[in-house]
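Homework help board

Subject: predicted structure for assignment chain

Our instructor gave us this sequence and asked us to write out the predicted structure in token form, then describe one feature. I got the tokens but I'm not sure how to describe them. Can anyone check?
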Amino acid sequence: MAQATGQTLRIDIVSDVMCPWCFVGYHQLRLAQEQTGIPIEVFWHPFELNPQMAPEGEELREHLMGKYGITVEQSIEARARLEAIGDELNAPIRFTDGKRIYNTFALHRLLHWAAESGQAGALKLTLFEAYFTDSKEMNDPQAMADVAAALGLDRARALEILTGDDYAEEVRAKQQFWTSKGISGVPAMVFERQHLVTGAQGVENYANILTQLAAAQAGAA
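My token output:
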């Protein structure tokens, strides 16, 4: 691994907990950082893939087939591809039978609260794992409060947020900010507040981006 040099690069990531390519993209970025040794700091921002979805969610396969017009065979192939990519990144993705997709507004509110104690990053990654690796029911306030408590966060307060509407205005404002900047799909990563990169770009591409930005930063210094 290269020696870490220079200042820390800021990376803002707009994403949804339900987005598999957000999960993949983050872990590709993580590996790129490990390979280059270039220090980064990640800031997470909210995006809802399915803002109008009912609280009970939808069966994932049926949802994707209806939304994108894909066949059962294409769905199976896409899932197998994602699972293989996840295994390569040491970030397991498991598509169990009956897996559901949910609206994530309550989870974004929980993340906003966690940010107050510097735990948003840890909670975001734990929520990713809860969904993609452990197939937890992400609309279950008790289960999600347990996830927060496992990180040392106040379980009672987490449950209060998940079952109430605290931080709704703040999260809506954040979402509006990013959509006003033209973000309509995720993952969307903004490097150093000015370079937008969309989609999961792969370890090599992220490593190149980090290297180029670190070199530019060093040259400016």
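Reply (TA_rk): Your tokens look well-formed. For the description, you could write something like this. The two ends are 24 Å apart (CA to CA). That's the kind of observation they're looking for.
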